[in-house]
């Protein structure tokens, strides 16, 4: 079986392409995943094929990346409008990082929305590989009625519902065909000395030789050939499928590529797991592509026995099912297989770095509809994060509530639907509160005496403490300058412990940071003093001093790295400034052509707005990662509102 992924932005007709390709020579067999990765098996040219129809939203890029792990090649569907080329930028980035041989298919050419050369030029801004036209359109007025193949120099006229008809190259297209063919041959000659010599000697190379060279350079991932068509009318589908059949490499090339990336012996690389999902009453289903023999139920894979092996298209299973090398199969009760991973019989190996999904930008607290679902929700989210690497599951600081980081609102909605439909857990979501802190603005001194008389031994401790602001980022410090044993040495650790305890909640209701405490005097009683007494005296004394120290609210500030196509960089200064952030600068992204990495400091309370503004300004393409940088003072009405909200019943503390 040969396997390819069809990927690209939403509304570029990917599913229609898969449907038409699968129906060229018979009836395809299909299966669907709740994550939007659909699988179609079909036969073409007496060979078995598997097409992975990858989801289109940018929030599902993780599943696109994983599909490429199992693909010999891919088809990148793009719009025929030049201004929409930027929407393909994330997919070109993934394709090039993965090393997957790619055919670029300009779909919906029946809707004239710009010149093809402008589409290719706009896309080339985001591709390190040369985008090489293999076909040009034939026009009648504003309509595209066919295409001309630049290698065979044959022209075809589209016919609705039928295979295209062979025609002579129209005079109106002859000059453009000659120009585009010369450009094609010039680029191909960069990878073949024989062809270069033929061109230098002004000899016309035969089509068979050109097809062989084209097949080799695609297999070696040296160029990205460009084909055109309109899948909804069946136009260009046969040519696209023939290009895959003759030019896409076999499964052995993918095995070699993955073995190199995973630093594993190629002969030991038995399979790759690339997708998983949970089904009601069935459990976890894992999709695997086989590279070796003997992967039947009970066989050793990934260090444990393989569960039931199923045909992914019809769900049938049985002990007699044994996928051949190259086949895609499903397995249940194989929870030991992480997804994605490279698999030998005895081990699981981490996938290549390029499979790391974009950093999730949307943070939400999930609240179960009933208390009895609290533990169930925690366990279920852990399961789902194993099958969806775009999802990160944490606990909210202070409350322990379930906090999820999702790729965006669509991803969050799908997560909530899965929780309800598959696991019968209904949840609502809320925005988590930023992690605020407080400190003091001025020093103070306090004298605190703790005296308590009970029926037995009493409690006595007397401390004199000075409290002062520390420099930012230094945290809590404690020192002592007592002399003459006024506070015995064995009680001083208890004084420090009490001071630390007082820092847990200051007068504004938040944890106190960047404060120094010094014990400079005190008294003790030979009988009634104890560690507990001095700890209590210190805690109460520091609390009193904090209330006199002009408490200041501190907001978290994060260092953000924003990844965006370069055409959007100009809008980010205004976005960051509007969020009261600080622009630090930007650089070209050395790993992705046409992208910038924009650096900024952004208040924690503005990160949700940053995600929203970034999605709006970049058509959902831009994303950011964040790391905590420091706390800074926050004053005025904004600070007052935060303190009031924190004091309200039910507020997260």
Automatic annotation (TrEMBL):
<dbReference type="GO" id="GO:0003746">
    <property type="term" value="F:translation elongation factor activity"/>
</dbReference>
<dbReference type="InterPro" id="IPR041095">
    <property type="entry name" value="EFG_II"/>
</dbReference>
<dbReference type="GO" id="GO:0032790">
    <property type="term" value="P:ribosome disassembly"/>
</dbReference>
<keyword id="KW-0547">Nucleotide-binding</keyword>
<dbReference type="InterPro" id="IPR035647">
    <property type="entry name" value="EFG_III/V"/>
</dbReference>
<comment type="function">
    <text>Catalyzes the GTP-dependent ribosomal translocation step during translation elongation. During this step, the ribosome changes from the pre-translocational (PRE) to the post-translocational (POST) state as the newly formed A-site-bound peptidyl-tRNA and P-site-bound deacylated tRNA move to the P and E sites, respectively. Catalyzes the coordinated movement of the two tRNA molecules, the mRNA and conformational changes in the ribosome.</text>
</comment>
<dbReference type="InterPro" id="IPR000640">
    <property type="entry name" value="EFG_V-like"/>
</dbReference>
<dbReference type="GO" id="GO:0003924">
    <property type="term" value="F:GTPase activity"/>
</dbReference>
<dbReference type="Pfam" id="PF00009">
    <property type="entry name" value="GTP_EFTU"/>
</dbReference>
<feature type="domain" description="Elongation factor EFG">
    <location>
        <begin position="552"/>
        <end position="642"/>
    </location>
</feature>
<dbReference type="InterPro" id="IPR027417">
    <property type="entry name" value="P-loop_NTPase"/>
</dbReference>
<protein>
    <recommendedName>
        <fullName>Elongation factor G</fullName>
    </recommendedName>
</protein>
<dbReference type="InterPro" id="IPR014721">
    <property type="entry name" value="Ribsml_uS5_D2-typ_fold_subgr"/>
</dbReference>
<dbReference type="Pfam" id="PF14492">
    <property type="entry name" value="EFG_III"/>
</dbReference>
<keyword id="KW-0251">Elongation factor</keyword>
<dbReference type="GO" id="GO:0097216">
    <property type="term" value="F:guanosine tetraphosphate binding"/>
</dbReference>
<dbReference type="InterPro" id="IPR000795">
    <property type="entry name" value="T_Tr_GTP-bd_dom"/>
</dbReference>
<dbReference type="InterPro" id="IPR047872">
    <property type="entry name" value="EFG_IV"/>
</dbReference>
<feature type="domain" description="Translation elongation factor EFG/EF2">
    <location>
        <begin position="433"/>
        <end position="550"/>
    </location>
</feature>
<dbReference type="InterPro" id="IPR005517">
    <property type="entry name" value="Transl_elong_EFG/EF2_IV"/>
</dbReference>
<dbReference type="Pfam" id="PF00679">
    <property type="entry name" value="EFG_C"/>
</dbReference>
<dbReference type="InterPro" id="IPR020568">
    <property type="entry name" value="Ribosomal_Su5_D2-typ_SF"/>
</dbReference>
<keyword id="KW-0648">Protein biosynthesis</keyword>
<dbReference type="InterPro" id="IPR035649">
    <property type="entry name" value="EFG_V"/>
</dbReference>
<keyword id="KW-0342">GTP-binding</keyword>
<dbReference type="Pfam" id="PF03764">
    <property type="entry name" value="EFG_IV"/>
</dbReference>
<dbReference type="GO" id="GO:0005525">
    <property type="term" value="F:GTP binding"/>
</dbReference>
């Amino acid at each position: 079986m040969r396997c390819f992924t069809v990927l690209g932005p939403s509304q570029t007709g990917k599913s229609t392409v898969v449907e038409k390709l699968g129906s060229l020579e018979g009836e395809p067999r299909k299966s669907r995943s709740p994550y939007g990765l659909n699988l179609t098996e079909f036969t073409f040219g007496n060979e078995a094929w598997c097409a992975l129809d990858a989801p289109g939203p940018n929030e599902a890029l993780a599943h696109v990346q994983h599909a490429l792990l199992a693909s010999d090649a891919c088809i990148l569907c793009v719009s025929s409008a030049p201004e929409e080329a930027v929407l393909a930028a994330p997919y070109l980035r993934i394709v090039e990082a993965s090393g997957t041989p790619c055919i670029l298919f300009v779909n919906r050419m029946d809707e004239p929305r710009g010149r093809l050369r402008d589409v290719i030029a706009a896309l080339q801004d985001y591709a390190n590989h040369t985008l090489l036209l293999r076909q040009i359109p034939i026009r009648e007025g504003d309509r595209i009625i066919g295409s001309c193949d630049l290698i065979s120099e044959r022209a075809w006229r589209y016919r609705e519902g039928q295979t295209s008809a062979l025609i002579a190259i129209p005079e109106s297209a002859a000059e453009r065909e000659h120009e585009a063919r010369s450009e094609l041959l010039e680029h191909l000659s960069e990878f073949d000395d024989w062809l270069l010599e033929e061109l230098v000697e002004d000899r016309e190379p035969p089509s068979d030789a050109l097809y062989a060279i084209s097949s080799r350079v695609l297999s070696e991932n040296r160029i990205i050939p460009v084909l055109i068509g309109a899948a909804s009318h069946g136009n260009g589908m046969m040519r696209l499928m023939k290009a895959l059949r003759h030019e896409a490499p076999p499964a052995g090339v993918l095995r070699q590529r993955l073995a190199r990336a995973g630093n594993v012996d190629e002969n030991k690389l038995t399979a790759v797991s690339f997708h998983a999902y949970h089904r009601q009453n069935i459990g976890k289903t894992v999709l695997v592509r086989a590279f070796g023999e003997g992967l039947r139920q009970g066989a050793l894979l990934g260090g444990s026995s393989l569960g039931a092996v199923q045909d992914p298209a019809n769900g049938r299973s049985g002990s007699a099912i044994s996928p051949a090398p190259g086949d895609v199969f499903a397995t249940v009760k194989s929870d030991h297989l992480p997804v994605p991973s490279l698999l030998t019989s005895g081990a699981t190996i981490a996938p290549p770095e390029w499979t790391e999904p974009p950093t999730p930008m949307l943070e939400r607290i999930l609240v179960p509809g009933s208390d009895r679902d609290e533990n169930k929700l925690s366990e279920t989210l852990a399961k789902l994060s194993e099958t969806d690497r775009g999802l990160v599951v944490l606990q909210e600081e202070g409350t322990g509530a379930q906090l999820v980081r999702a790729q965006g609102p669509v991803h969050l909605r799908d997560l909530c639907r899965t929780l309800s439909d598959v696991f019968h857990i209904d949840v609502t979501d809320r925005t988590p509160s930023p992690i605020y802190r407080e400190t003091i603005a001025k020093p103070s001194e306090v004298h605190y005496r703790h005296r308590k008389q009970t029926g037995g031994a009493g409690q006595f401790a007397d401390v004199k403490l000075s409290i002062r602001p520390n420099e930012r980022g230094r945290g809590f410090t404690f020192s002592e300058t007592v002399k003459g044993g006024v506070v015995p040495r064995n009680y001083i650790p208890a004084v420090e412990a009490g001071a630390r305890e007082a820092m847990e909640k200051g007068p504004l209701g938040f944890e106190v940071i960047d404060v120094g405490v010094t014990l400079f005097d005190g008294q003790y009683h030979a009988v009634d003093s104890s560690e507990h007494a001095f700890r209590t005296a210190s805690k109460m004394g520091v609390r009193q001093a904090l209330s006199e120290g002009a408490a200041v609210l501190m907001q978290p500030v994060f260092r953000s790295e924003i990844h965006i196509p370069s055409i959007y960089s100009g809008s980010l200064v205004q976005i960051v400034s509007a969020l009261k952030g600080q622009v630090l600068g930007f650089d070209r992204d050395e790993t992705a052509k046409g992208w910038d990495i924009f650096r900024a400091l952004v208040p924690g309370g503005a990160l949700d707005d940053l995600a929203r503004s970034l999605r709006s300004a970049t058509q959902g393409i831009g994303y950011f990662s964040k790391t905590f940088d420091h706390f800074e003072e926050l004053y005025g009405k904004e600070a007052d509102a935060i303190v009031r909200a924190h004091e309200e019943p039910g507020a997260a503390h």
